[in-house]
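PROTOCOL LOG
Step 1. Enter all chains and additional molecules of the complex.
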Amino acid sequence: MESTSAIEVKNLSKIYRIGLKEQKQETLTGTFLDAIKKPVRNFRKIKNLKNNSNHNDEDVFWALKDISFTLQKGEILGIIGSNGAGKSTLLKLLSRITYPSAGKIECRGKVASLLEVGTGFNPDLTGRENVYLNGTILGLSKREIDERFAAIVEFSGIEKFIETPVKRYSSGMKVRLAFAVAAHLEPEVLIIDEVLAVGDADFQRKCIGKMQEISDGTGRTVLFVSHNMAAVKSLCTRGIVLKSGQKVFDGSQTDAINFYQANLDNAANLDYIDNIEDAPGNEFVRIINFRIKPLEGKILSITSGVDFEVLLYNYVEKANLDITFELRNSEEIIVFHTGTYITTNNDSRKGFYRVTGTLPPHLLNSGLYFFSIIIGQNQKIALFKGRDMVSFEVIHEAQSNHMRQLPGVVSPKLCFKTSFEER
Amino acid sequence: MNSKDTVVSIEPQSASKFIDTKELIRYKDLLYYMVLRDVTVLYKQTVLGFSWAIITPVFQIVIFSFVFGHLAGIKPDMNDMPYPIFSCLAVIPWTYFSNTVNASGQSLINTSSIFTKVYFPRIIIPLTHVFSKIVDFSISFIILIGLMIFFQYKPGMNVVFLFIPLLIIIITSAGMGFWLSSLAVQYRDFKFAMTFMIPLLMYVAPVTFPASLVLNKLGTTAYHIYALYPMVGGIEGFRSSFSAGKEMPWDLISISAVSAIAIFTSGLWYFRKMEKYFADIA
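Step 2. Run joint prediction.
Step 3. Record the structure below.
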């Protein structure tokens, strides 16, 4: 009995060489000599790009460091992490586009990778010709495309334009056609990078449907990189969180999202309980702890609500302390700016104060949010302003096949009444 | 097809097979569509279309016939072969060679957006042009036929050997393509060097003059060393195949064939060795 693993990754590492700043010559002769020596240096630099042996050089950047995991057949793995965490590098290694510096990958079965839709599309060729070109680039044979051609065209919904050069297509049509080819690859292992972020809402629904079809029951193994937590949550069966090239979490997809949210790079949950003196703040007040968690359930989503808690250490005595929370979204729009008194009778004491608050469900829309706080005295003097103390992400909970994030800063649950009037 | 058994292992030092026939067969349709794309896209949105495959060499033949045939008075060494035919028999294969080497030399630079996004045997990229330029090559035979009718020149029996010099030219073009594409994607200097080196290489090849000129002026040893440049055997062999009554220059052809195979295999070896870095440095 052969093993049922589809992908085995062992101690995988990838290093890149990043350019170091060159010395600048101050004198004319220096500049001149430098210009003569430059070709030699350039040659060495380019040659060194391929030299992966000296891992300790200072211009070495570890895009991935010592990643290991085994993926069983039929598993659907979501890979999450912030920008630069190494997700794309991992996919590129798995798709054999680039080679590891150390470690090993073993893939069983036919692998298809979609790091982009429409790779190799040529504007001068017709839709039909591009289907064949793109299909063969992705590893299909002409016969396989012949068999699937009708289905591909039907899925794309552009039957009328299939003999038209692609340069006359709208960008949406191009993407539809490209995704249609990709959706009919039928590999045993599928590697996908964010391709869901294309097309209009209607087409996206179609894509998600196709993805679900691929993942449901067909025993296909899928690796999926996305920032769309809702898609990861509903499609994947397992999640891996990458951070700075290292695997920091491996478990169920829900736990992975939870872990990712709790460990966003912006120090999601601020905690200086063990070393108060290092906590952000000044001689008046220090923010010891700032914690965000869902009001209900494990994941911060539109329906979960948000529970937040600030623990501060106050040095100012006999004053009226107040605290203001300002929440901004990733577009720098201030969602609210509101606060409360901590002490009211000019009786503040040196010591810890804890402030908790909640944001009800169906208030924040999905997206990334940043909390800033201002600690004030008598609502006049700002003792401490902490901008973007913590950040958190609210995810869009997938409801049926409606997975697209909705626009808007808030996502309220409104009371609607409809009636029919005859006049 | 039972692909369940295929285990792909990706390791830093995984020694790639010199030629992975199984994989190339699996991707043969890709090569076909890449060639098709190259051919159909080349003359898109031109008025004259495939006529360009004739116009370019015709102008060269006219100029060479005037400058070298008429003014310089270079005499073809083949019995009664008019200079325009003599020149045409070199310009046509040379045009194929220079078009192929130029296009495949730049091919990796131009397709980086594809091969950094998906895996397929990289060797297909330079190979595409080796095949696609054959279309232009075949079309330009019209010039040769036209000239032969005009000068009422009848080729001899040597035509049966035509495939040998053709193979030398194609193998050399492919080998040069492997070398230059993998070098140019790393060191862009080659992109600039190619644009002036390839025309220069033409004047070294027996395009405007017969190779026997080298034999007469510099002796047998120099003549044989000269044949290490595979286009010497390629062009001379190509010409002789169409000449009436002249022996095939088997000495040149065999030396050039060996050197063509050397360029091809070394080019393939270098390409295969470097291909795992292409995506990182392109």
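Step 4. Note key features.
The CA atoms of residues 356 and 405 of chain A lie 29 Å apart.
The first strand of chain A starts at residue 5 and ends at 17.
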